[in-house]
């Protein structure tokens, strides 16, 4: 911590780093500061303000600055640490020629050095770690999702056009009589598979990127490579464990690819589909025996389409503009049930927050009494649902609601198809979420109750307030002050509580005539099935849907914050 | 210390009985499914269909199966390491920034606070694709923090937790009278010293609760862990136990129940450990009048 300061003897009178320009000014400033003058008005409303150049040595004991040797040492330590981390981080980026990454690391390092080495008092000293973490792991994913929403990324549209061409060519490789053969050794490098190939006394290394000559290979008795610098040769057991990967691996070469045949041989085959840059199309006979055909590149769809309308499965990622966002609104498969799902989604999130908060606060209040016994035992037991792994307990609850052998029916002697009827299914997911969520509210309410000064309640009692009035006018407003941001967070979480619905009902029960939307579906489970369902992964469309979900939640959050006192608290 | 005025005049004992009745009812609601899991864990048959609320018999066959047929202890060590580190790191980082938001006034403070809340409304699991992009880049350059690394996932979890924790802790800091830090400042301390010597010790309850919440959220986290920690050595409890039930749900239910209970042990332990910090009325007497 750079703000760490000690007042050691040696430190006295040493100017701090960065202060050399105007040590006098700082030293004299406190004497003129009203806050520092003894006997001055109490500094009730003066808060430490983050104004640059505000004398930090305010009210220094005569004879020394607090920024002594300790502070200097702390700054040097910070300097060393930041530079060391930066050097470690930048080395692989620079060696890979990644200048954007290098520039980002340099900018972050510069910001860190500036913030932590300047003697000024800056809020940034406190805020930098949070800022960096939030930027990297929250802001960037959101922004990136929004950019993905503008593309057709998904199964068959994952990479660039060149990658798609390579995939088309290598996957169409067929063996031909008289094609080149190699002795194969399967090896590993940095976790990736590599083929070590030997033919005619020459050695090559092949990966999915391509083939290159191999230096420093040791040839064994059978003509196979037994060792090579930088590669780990797999044992036959290891190789058979990865046989699926090995069969898949095609090393692209001119006019075809090298594929394995078993674990010790490889052949070079000819690609039956080849890309022709002249017509920007893929030509060949497709599945081997068919007539010669041409698939033209369609830059709008990001795939190769033949004259008869068929397309090759491997495509590439292209920008589709607002098509995904528009599809989410106009595609009848998607928007038909949007309002119904949205309505239940609102009810679900609101009910979960209200129920968990009400029960949590009620229990916290019941236990918050000076003469209450066994509080600790109650607290430990009541918080147990929160300690249980949620995903596991969701599955347990699902089985407890089972009609035939479910515990709920057995214990209460009922024969209810809990998860099979829309109403009971909705009741069930709410009950499960109440069970999972109320201990959290209970914990927070317990913590918040302890911060309410007893004087407030005593004063209210002296003024003749009844117990209900004391609760309504003193305890509850103060509790809500602490709880409301968490309730809004809880709302946002439950609005998208994928596990809470998906693991219990999977969105069901589904009406007989419509298997796409169930009674307990939230927008997010509904989107999930649409985007990742039978048609294969459509990340672009899913991103567009999640942008909508996010906008809805963000708007609701902001509106609820305006209604609670949170924003007033922000302004305080 | 924090002496709450007594219950409504008259019927004090009755009030206490009601309080106990409510507490017992809620405790029963809380314990009912857990009891089922306990009995399923002890159930000698180890299947879902034979599990009852009260154990019909008891042996440790399910536990023995779990320990011998799965790498349960590796999952366990990974989960505790990740959750513990995430809790410690995110509370430390959040407390520092919460102090700035609570005590300093600076340009961008309001926007920063609101942005922290709004940004975390984003459905995390749909950000899986971008997060995967980030981690592919990290894996290429710094494998120690990349895919299949507990350190990288820890960093990701910390990043996901700082927003809500900053809010939680800031709310508590706001209730600590500013007169206390002002007194420290007048006595010649820096804000950093006031933070460490006054605000932090007084905030032990909220720091404990935040750490507990993060620990629980992290040890329960499934989706991110299932995507980023796929190696045999790096799986967490959530991923491992889920795979157990995905294979054979009925037959493995006993083992699953044992694993569920053992997963809860570190959380309960952390709660017990932190409970002494959740003490009454720390600030109630600090500033009188």
Automatic annotation (TrEMBL), chain A:
One GO term (biological process): maltodextrin transmembrane transport
Descriptive protein name: Maltose/maltodextrin transport system permease protein
A cellular component term, taken from the record's GO annotations: maltose transport complex
One Pfam family matching this protein: TM_PBP2_N
Chain's role: Part of the ABC transporter complex MalEFGK involved in maltose/maltodextrin import. Probably responsible for the translocation of the substrate across the membrane.
Region (Disordered) location: 1-62
Primary residence: membrane
Automatic annotation (TrEMBL), chain B:
Domain of life: Bacteria
Membrane disposition: Multi-pass membrane protein
Residues annotated as transmembrane: 21-42, 75-101, 113-138, 150-169, 206-231, 251-274
GO biological process: maltodextrin transmembrane transport
The ABC transmembrane type-1 domain, residue ranges: 76-274
UniProt subcellular location: Cell membrane
GO molecular function: ABC-type maltose transporter activity
UniProt keywords, alphabetically: Cell membrane, Membrane, Sugar transport, Transmembrane, Transmembrane helix, Transport
GO cellular component, one term: plasma membrane
Keyword Transmembrane: yes
Family of this protein: Belongs to the binding-protein-dependent transport system permease family. MalFG subfamily.
Name by which UniProt lists this protein: Arabinogalactan oligomer/maltooligosaccharide transport system permease protein
Source organism of the structure: Planomonospora venezuelensis
